[in-house]
Amino acid sequence: MSKAKDSVTETIKTVVYALLIAGLFRSLLFQPFFIPSSSMKSTLLVGDFLFVNKMSYGYSKYSCPFEFMCPFSGRILDSAPERGDVVVFQHPTQHRAFVKRLIGLPGDKIQMKSGVLYINGEEAKQTDAGTFSEVFEAQGRSGNTPRCSNAAVGFGGECVKESVTETFPDGHAHTILNIGPTRMDDTQVFTVPAKQYFFMGDNRDNSADSRIAQPMGVGFVPEEYLLGRVDRVIFSAKGKSLLFFWTWRWDRIFEEIV
Fold first, then answer.
1. What pTM, to 2 d.p., does this model score?
2. Catalytic pick from 41, 54, 100, 238?
3. What is the pLDDT at residue 148?
4. Nearest Cα to 210, choosing from 225, 230, 229?
5. Does residue 240 have an active-site annotation?
6. Is residue 202 part of a domain?
7. Do the domain assignments include residue 4?
8. Which of 2, 39, 147, 229 could form a disulfide with 201 if both were Cys (CB 3.0 to 4.6 A apart)?
9. Is 73 annotated in the active site?
10. For residue 224, is it within any domain?
11. Where are the alpha helices (DSSP H) in the chain?
């Protein structure tokens, strides 16, 4: 009987240690993140699997799986993010993780004019990058269908969006998508407060981001809500589960995020 009890005790201890190690790994190093929506196309696709680098910007209470595990205010080991980073952050009011591109740093003035981004009054130049094409079909676990520039598309048809390369005044370049005119193509001037950040999705016409105030959008994001930067796609599947091997996107494994 004592041997059986010892065996059970050792098993419980092993499970507890494993959970603690996993919790520390997730809290301090890398957190897994699965892309559920299309707001960052074509940089990130629905079904991309990433690891968030938790070391990139330091830590706050939101860096831990449970807030009681990080019982401090503000940030420790703090490092400032750079404009153009693709960042995972905790939504300040919806209590779930978002991934967007960092557009505005503290003190910046951000505005959209006719679909073109302006940072501190300087235009982020756009150059033609052709088109982004995908099959019009249910995508990912949610089963949502993509929005298209080429009007109504039947299931299995080609869904097309305009693709352009956007270059920030500091030289950082990345690809964004344009579906068509929307009310968010022209905005007020947003002045980013101290210790807060302004984010936008690369799929500009299909992204709830800092152009929309909370709670419906993201608004300005305080620095303590930043979870980390993502640098590469680790794995990708266009089906509802990573187990559906016939839906794997082999060309996206370990693809660098620009």
1. 0.87
2. 100
3. 94
4. 225
5. no
6. yes
7. no
8. 39
9. no
10. yes
11. 2-28
